[in-house]
Every structure is written in structure tokens, then in C-alpha cells.
Specification:
The protein has one domain. 61% of the residues lie in helices and 3% in strands. The protein has six helices and two strands; from the N terminus they run ββαααααα. The chain has a two-stranded antiparallel sheet with strand order 1-2. A hairpin with a 2-residue loop joins β1 and β2. The chain starts with a strand and ends in a 12-residue tail after the last helix. The structure holds flavin-adenine dinucleotide. The site of flavin-adenine dinucleotide has 10 residues, from α1 and α2.
Length: 119
């Protein structure tokens, strides 16, 4: 969403920054978001500053997690019989030991755009 908060309301997790299920990042984003938001709220006297600090810290991490290759969600949710066949073939190859790491690198986005503060 273009904005993560309004007034006294801020969003966390899938409600705010739902990454593709194939990114494998949704749970990490939700947990990190809750951790950061909780602590920013305890450190700032007013919600607006706490929410802004939360968004500033989390947004690059979220953007990174959302940047999965366009073909990856299509591969996971094919629209046709051919798509299903291709998906199955790719998954079969992806389970071969050498390819597993390679596919992980291609399909999963990096997750290093945040340095979690030790509150
Ligand atoms: C197929 C699939 C595979 C996935 N694989 C991975 C993975 O490998 N790794 C990973 O990290 N993430 C994965 N995810 C994503 C991950 O499951 C989500 O990102 C994560 O669960 C989001 O947590 P959340 O608390 O934000 O939302 P949710 O888990 O959706 O929790 C929201 C809760 O709010 C409740 N709710 C909704 N409306 C109301 C209401 N009006 N009143 C009260 N309660 C309400 C819902 O019942 C729900 O319990 C996957 C998701 C899918 C669908």
C-alpha cells in the first residue's frame, strides 16, 4: 500500500505488505513488522512518529521481499494444462540436489534489506 498508517491505525503483516506466497517471506515480514512496530510505539510518545519510524525501517525489507521474479507466482498458480505440466516438470527438477540451491536463488528474493535493532 502507498501508506501504511492513518490516524491511530497502522497495518502489519499480510494486511499491509502481502508478499507472494512463493517468496517464502510472509511470516518473517509479519513477525519483524510486529517486533519493530511494538518497540517504536514504546519509544515514541505519539503514534505518528512511531508509525513513521516503523515504515521507514520496514519498507526496504518489504520491497525486497515483494520483488519475486514475475514468472514465479505464475509457475505456482498456472492457468492452463500446459502451465500445470511445466510447473510439475520444474518442481521435479528443483528437487534434484544440485538444482535445489539454484532454484532457491532464482525464486526466492534476498532478505537482507533490514538490520533489526536490538531494542
Ligand atoms: C500457500 C501459501 C504458502 C505460504 N508459504 C509461506 C512460506 O513458506 N514462508 C512464509 O514465511 N510465509 C508463507 N506464506 C505466507 C504466510 O502464511 C503469511 O504471510 C502469514 O501467515 C501472514 O500472517 P498475518 O498474521 O499477517 O496474517 P494471517 O495469518 O492471515 O492472520 C490474519 C488473521 O486475522 C483473522 N481475521 C480476518 N478477518 C478478521 C476479522 N474481521 N476479525 C477478527 N479476525 C480476523 C484471520 O482469521 C487470521 O487468523 C504462505 C501463504 C500461503 C497462502
Amino acid at each position: 500500500m502507498p501508506r501504511w498508517f492513518k490516524g491511530h491505525i497502522a497495518l502489519v503483516g499480510d494486511a499491509e505488505y502481502c508478499a507472494s506466497p512463493i517468496s517464502g517471506m510472509g511470516t518473517s515480514l509479519g513477525l519483524c513488522g510486529a517486533y519493530v512496530l511494538a518497540d517504536e510505539l514504546s519509544r515514541h510518545p505519539d503514534d505518528a512518529h512511531a508509525f513513521a519510524a516503523y515504515e521507514k525501517l520496514m519498507r526496504p525489507y518489504v520491497a525486497q521481499a515483494q520483488s519475486v521474479h514475475k514468472f514465479a507466482p505464475r509457475l505456482a498458480s498456472p492457468y492452463s494444462r500446459l502451465g500445470i505440466a511445466i510447473g510439475h516438470a520444474v518442481l521435479r527438477i528443483a528437487t534434484v540436489p544440485g538444482f535445489k540451491t539454484l532454484f532457491g536463488k532464482i525464486l526466492s528474493p534476498k532478505a537482507d534489506a533490514i538490520k533489526l535493532p536490538s531494542y
